[in-house]
Predict the 3D structure of the following.
Amino acid sequence: MNHPVRVQALKYGGHPYRHWSASLRQKVGPLIILEAAFEQTVSHKFLGTIPQGTLSTEYYWTDRWFSIFRLARQHDRQLICFYCNVNTPAEFDGSTLRFVDLDVDLLVMPDLSCHVLDADELESNAQRYNYPPDLVRSAHQALAELHHLARTRQFPFNEIEMNPKPSHADDLDR
């Protein structure tokens, strides 16, 4: 299974935020795994420069309020970090995957240390754009779940080696 997918990250209210091309690697139940490479060099305020060609294995769920990106160096597939977006559950029609980015992120390093990014943006945007209380609550719960998954080395945080492949099909359904 390896066909093209267009990823569309939206902001609250359906406003376009980012988009990129990826390939569908696997779909199992609510889990969708995509493969992508950075199409251009990106400057990130916490990660510094992310070179063009950096590999991204992207884990999305249609029933979870987050997505997880395993970033790896192009030349040896060595893990750089896991970049976790708190977002609405993914919507996937077979060719386009969409989600609403909810501002706060979690950076998980190879040693599984965790760093919350942009928590202030979630709070300020929740007030500015009048996010419903349930949306804010879901974002906070998603952040707590991501912390738990990383701390307990659950899928996909058990995929630290160079060429990640899901260990067990059961892991994909969680």
Remarks:
- Residues 133-151 form the longest helix (19 residues).
- Residues 162-174 have pLDDT under 50 and may be disordered.
- Helices lie at 119-128, 133-151, 169-172.
